[in-house]
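fold-stage: in
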Amino acid sequence: MTKWYAFDQNNSRGVWLLPAQIVVVEGASAEHAWTRFMDTNPDMSFCDCCGDRWSEYVDSEFESRPDPSKLRKPYREETGVPWLCFMAADGSQSVVGWNDGEGR
């Protein structure tokens, strides 16, 4: 049985990177979800000047894919980066934009 784990992006140098400010990953455990996310995005884990871009700390844990309304919207809308991305166990991803109620 899998769960969904939310990870927050650190704002290194005041810049946000894709896929989103918060990524919610499906996995067998928090460690499994973290590994899946880092394996999918190996170039995004570290900033030369500011350190780790993503935190292994699990911001939230869910029994099933959460409704976006259950997650907080972070920071500002004008970043140009979606606020939320879901990564399912099958590898599919869906992004929730600032004005979206659903993934797109």
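fold-stage: in (second)
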Amino acid sequence: MTKTLEVYEMKKKIEILGKHVKDKVTGFKGVATSISFDLYGCIQLVITPYADKENKNGDGNWYDIGRIKILDHKRVLDIPDFGVKVKGPAEKPIK
């Protein structure tokens, strides 16, 4: 896999953040709030449940990304840029 393709695939996974999702196995629903790319190739994300009737949040849980179904492509918040600026094929070196 080329570096460009690898970066594209990672960005596709990051695009899930902020969306309404569901774990296909347990049916757990909420918002995708964090993503992890680990050393062994496993990609997981945290589903944070919706607030209950008393407006209290439950704990989020980690799920393998292959188990995730996107319920709504509209985000609850925009994804931050994480300080990464795409400026073209090369950036000027910093002295």
